[in-house]
Amino acid sequence: MGYQDEVFRKREQTLLATALKLFQKHGWEQVTVAQVADAAGIGKGTVYKHFATKDEIYARLALDFSQRCLEAYRRQGIGDQALASMRAVIRLSFDLMHQHPTEVQLSLHCERPEFQERLGPRFQSRFAELEVGYTRLFNELLEAAVARGEIPQVPIESVFWGIEAGFHGVMARVAAGGFGHWSTTPDMARYFDHVADFMIAGLLGASAIGATLERQGPNTEGEST
Amino acid sequence: MGYQDEVFRKREQTLLATALKLFQKHGWEQVTVAQVADAAGIGKGTVYKHFATKDEIYARLALDFSQRCLEAYRRQGIGDQALASMRAVIRLSFDLMHQHPTEVQLSLHCERPEFQERLGPRFQSRFAELEVGYTRLFNELLEAAVARGEIPQVPIESVFWGIEAGFHGVMARVAAGGFGHWSTTPDMARYFDHVADFMIAGLLGASAIGATLERQGPNTEGEST
DNA sequence: TGCCAACAATGACCAACAGTCATAATATGA
DNA sequence: TCATATTATGACTGTTGGTCATTGTTGGCA
Predict the structure, then answer these.
(1) How many domains does chain A divide into?
(2) Does A167 touch chain B (CB under 8 A)?
(3) What does each of the 225 residues of chain B score in pLDDT, given as a tens digit?
(4) Where are the alpha helices (DSSP H) in chain A?
(5) Residue B13's CB: how many other CB atoms inside 10 A?
(6) From the list B194, B201, B203, which residue is nearest A161 (CB)?
(7) B29 and B74 in contact (C-beta within 8 Å)?
């Protein structure tokens, strides 16, 4: 049983790698299951022994990528300058996205709620877990920044959503393959630096606002117009 | 010829409205062309007299929505406090997204480059034009802020991409239908306020950074760590 | 080694759907 | 009223995701 199982596992990896290669070459939407099976040297029916639907292949690739990224961010660690560490993590994530545009496209595709609904709870919870992992990482970085006195104590929501939005924006841009038809076409490195700066600036500014409101009392309807 | 033409035009609007209604009810991916035709009370073949592909229906809905939004932002105008006006436009856009999640989903779908490639140049240029319209609007708001002394003169790229990323993030969140499985579940209005604050804070902070670098000389490799 | 049972791989097959086109219905105009 | 041009239609086609009865393979046992 052990050996067969090993073979089975190996083939799953081969399948994923083959699928990814084809997706990169021809666009993930155009590639058919039959093509993947063919390229992997197995029958089409066998693919469905590993993945219940084509969508599961997408989901696996997206999840594995996201998982590897999270691990890479964790390896980076938190230095004695917390905001600098946060910027470094942000910048690293941009670079990883840039190196793996197909995976980013798949991630965006898989994040859609109808998609996850179709996948079933097994995968939904894996996506949810990863999201928790990312939120936790951000929280740790934020708390480190507070502990080191780089930003004031502030409720996490007042900065988290802005950061999250920034990530999504860059994902969308990377998935779109850069700047295409744009008039002002910065190279990606410059673009990444601008957005990273923007996100850190937003974090600093928003946390200052948050702290002010907090001091005035949490229930203030903060319409600063 | 005039009368028939009128009928034809009317039916196109009916088709789009019917399609949108079905998309809202059953999810745009699940709805078939036959269903749309049926609900509109015409034959399936007739749909293809109006739209060359199903994707063109998506594109039309996305384009029309985006166009209407841009007009709404323009109507808002620029008051004597430019940053407040910008925040108002941002906030308005969030509200419009919130009211029209299906259109937001379609917009995200249609922005993907493979999608636009398949559509052909006719539609590609319409999307590109809209993008120019948005960039121009942002530029005007930014210049007004500079003219009123609210922020220093700064190259547009150093702030534009951050803002753009923020918009995308909110679009993704709205398309995902809010916060679903989250532990901390703010209501949408609070969420929108946070992100809007974050974006304005980022704008202020990043333009300050940009101005500093500018003063030091534009070619500085600005590695502030 | 030869045989059998359990298991795995396969590709012909099915259903669903986007898109086509020959034909039917309708409008136009003399 | 009839002939002709125009428009609407849904049966049809090709493609693809997914299924399953059949075929092939493996491993244990006599």
Answers:
(1) 2
(2) yes
(3) 466 677 888 999 999 999 999 999 999 999 999 999 999 999 999 999 999 999 999 999 999 999 999 999 999 999 999 999 999 999 999 999 999 999 999 999 999 999 999 999 999 999 999 999 999 999 999 999 999 999 999 999 889 999 999 999 999 999 988 886 555 556 899 999 999 999 999 999 998 876 665 555 444 444 443
(4) 2-26, 33-40, 44-50, 54-76, 82-99, 101-111, 113-119, 121-147, 157-175, 188-216
(5) 10
(6) B194
(7) no
Distance from CA of A2 to the nearest CA of B (A): 38
Q: Name the nt closest to B8 by C-alpha to C1'.
A: D7
CB contact under 8 A, A157 and B209: no
Q: Is residue B140 part of a domain?
A: yes
A47 and A115 co-located in one domain: no
Q: Which residue's CA is nearest to the C1' of nucleotide D19?
A: A45
Residue-level length of chain B? 225
Chain B residue with the nearest C-alpha to that of A170: B165
Nearest-angstrom CA–CA distance, B32 and B162: 38
Whether residue A114 contacts residue B101, with contact meaning beta carbons closer than 8 Å, is answered with: no
Question: Which residue bears the tokens 């035709």?
Answer: B37
Residue A61 lies in a domain: no
CB count in 10 Å sphere of residue A134: 17
Distance from CA of B170 to the nearest CA of A (A): 6
The tens digit of pLDDT for each residue in A16-67 reads: 999 999 999 999 999 999 999 999 999 999 999 999 999 999 999 999 999 9
Let me know whether A11 and A104 are in one domain: no
Chain A from 37 to 76: CB within 8 A of any B CB: none
